[in-house]
Design goal:
Layout: E1 17-23, E2 28-34, E3 37-40, H1 48-53, E4 66-70, E5 88-90, E6 97-102, H2 106-118, H3 125-136, H4 148-159, H5 165-171, E7 176-181, E8 192-195, E9 202-203, E10 206-212, E11 218-226, E12 228-229, H6 230-235, H7 240-244, E13 250-258, H8 265-269, E14 272-278, E15 284-290, H9 298-306, E16 315-318, E17 343-348, E18 352-360, H10 371-380
Parallel strand pairs: 6-16, 8-18
Antiparallel strand pairs: 1-2, 1-5, 1-13, 2-3, 3-4, 6-7, 9-12, 10-11, 10-16, 11-13, 14-15, 14-17, 17-18
Length: about 375
Amino acid sequence: MSDSKAFPLPTDWRDAVLVGRMDMGEGPTPVVVKQGRVFDVSATQPTVAALLEDWSGAPDGTELGRDLGDIDDLGLTTAWSGKKGKARLLAPVDLQCVKACGVTFAVSAMERVIEERAQGVPGRAQAIREELAAKIGTDIRKVVPGSPQALALKEALIAGKLWSQYLEVAIGPDAEVFTKAPPMSSVGWGDYVGIRTQSSWNNPEPEVVVVVDRAGKAVGATLGNDVNLRDYEGRSALLLGKAKDNNAASALGPFIRMFDAGFTIDDVRNAVVELEIIGADNYRLEGKSSMAEISRDPLELVKQTISEHQYPDGFVLFCGTLFAPTQDRDQPGLGFTHKQGDVVRVSTPKLGVLENRVTTCKAAPPWNFGIADLMKNLVKRGLLRA
């Protein structure tokens, strides 16, 4: 076995235990990847939700399931490559709810305030950004949400007519938690991600995504792109659903890395997520998001997501991003927005690389395989038992 992999696995892939889904032509199949080899576990665990519910660590050898071979031998390719491999990589979750927390970093909080004040018009953003920087500065970075200091800052901002609903969830006691996408609708590595046709101000949101089982325990993590429409949400926070939940607008992958002795929640807390955008017009943008700067601990976000709710199939939680691009792409003062054909790469060493290509929600392959379709498929394959 070679020391490196063509497929972008974690840099320490030899020590990682990964969970995901592939389609070899019969339908979605849960797999475990260990030391670079892929094992089909569908005979005993037909869904990822079931696999994670019974997770007790990946055993050695053939007990894992049917050995599909080395991951590089499966010929995994992107949807836009024009090639077809032995398998297609899917988003690594199935029945889980897809949840997200927003405004979890000071910089992103300020950008949400800017969107709100600009009323979704990108040309107004820079002047508002400069005004807020002069009046608020970086004080918000140092504030612990829900603390007496946060309350004092809130009162001062209200007095100065600078308060916003986004600052409420940034430094108030309650985090913003919303449903990003229905179960089964997320796209995976190598798929297209969608932007609403009418949007002219949008951006990727590279994030760490925590994976939680039905008991509310964080069991692993993956990467995500929480595609964001700044013009929609900027016009009204009540348009959040239209800004966030669209066809192909939730990307997850490439795999879930399970927590174990070599990968823990502390690795999530210390992760630096890198973003690379490569345009068909030779445009290039790079950025980083350090989880160390998050305002609420990832497990606190999990706790607030559960709150007074239950998730019998588990859930995954986008933890937010520091990344909020302000660089002009075309005309001065209009900032960044996507163009069709942009390739977006989200990466961090211990989770690998999530790669997608931008198109419109209308042009992206339609989501037409839901929970009922999965159940019918599993019955047909003899994998679903009472």
